[in-house]
From TrEMBL:
<dbReference type="GO" id="GO:0000166">
    <property type="term" value="F:nucleotide binding"/>
</dbReference>
<feature type="domain" description="Gfo/Idh/MocA-like oxidoreductase N-terminal">
    <location>
        <begin position="1"/>
        <end position="118"/>
    </location>
</feature>
<dbReference type="Pfam" id="PF01408">
    <property type="entry name" value="GFO_IDH_MocA"/>
</dbReference>
<feature type="domain" description="GFO/IDH/MocA-like oxidoreductase">
    <location>
        <begin position="138"/>
        <end position="246"/>
    </location>
</feature>
<dbReference type="InterPro" id="IPR036291">
    <property type="entry name" value="NAD(P)-bd_dom_sf"/>
</dbReference>
<dbReference type="InterPro" id="IPR055170">
    <property type="entry name" value="GFO_IDH_MocA-like_dom"/>
</dbReference>
<dbReference type="InterPro" id="IPR000683">
    <property type="entry name" value="Gfo/Idh/MocA-like_OxRdtase_N"/>
</dbReference>
<dbReference type="Pfam" id="PF22725">
    <property type="entry name" value="GFO_IDH_MocA_C3"/>
</dbReference>
<protein>
    <submittedName>
        <fullName>Gfo/Idh/MocA family oxidoreductase</fullName>
    </submittedName>
</protein>
Amino acid sequence: MNIACVGTGFIVDRFLEAAEINGTVHPAAIYTRKEENAVSLQNKYGIGSIYTSYEKMLADPFIDAVYIASPNSMHYTHALQAIQAGKNVLVEKPFCANSEQASHLIKTAEQYEVILMEAITTIHLPNFHQIEKEIRGLGPLRLIQCNYSQYSSRYDKLLAGETPNVFNPAFAGGALMDINLYNLYFTVRLFGRPQRVTYEANFHSNGIDTSGCVLLSYNNFKAICIGSKDTSGLNSALIQGEKGWLHVLNGVNGCREINVHINGEAAPKTIPQKENLMYYELAVFQDMVSKQDFKRAAELQVYTKDVMHVLDEARKSANLIFP
């Protein structure tokens, strides 16, 4: 599969490394507004072409798929153009700025008969699938706690009066969309769409959320998802049932270590994973493209739509507005 990348940030470097590990995904091109921004990546990974025109890149018949890692607010436009050009599309998280955009992209992909997928690491990891099995032994669930807190170097720039994209409402940034999304995907993928969503956030003066807590209310249990870009914290997840509890160490974004506690005993349940976690989502995407597996793509899109709905409800409850 020949793939083109949109963007030149660190996540693209990580993605291209995953493609290199995969061995059958070839970086054919990269799109950037400034050619010099992509030269180091081109040299590092042997990328065929650098485009400063997105339309020209999409017209390249050699390209089978496009990986989109532009700012959040641009995901919708870039993905829509790629779909309409007949390309399969892998969109970095968050999929779009809102659920309406997400639904339109999914319908358009169906119309053009291309594979469309959100690039979210968590749900494709071997240890996540292990968690899906292990929670069955915890008895009736009562509480879920997830914390992903990571002090952002760009937060210092925000405090200094700058407005980095990740802290800019116009770019659909903020802690909810950038970091708490992992917790929400983890919870919604395991337990479905909640009955109620409430978001309590800490805001910067420009209106962006720098940290906050999302409460997800289910019929018989509650989940709290904490995401922070203005503090560091003890990243972990706890799934608590009447017969025992499951502990995910170091955050759900990696699911790198799992312990199950039943009857006062801790049992390690960790499965070895590759260091580059993007390997797994890319493998799923490539498999769907090679097989034109639209059924599997549609199944994954259900979770994307559910998470986008939760994000909409969370922002609405906190009056977090993206222009």
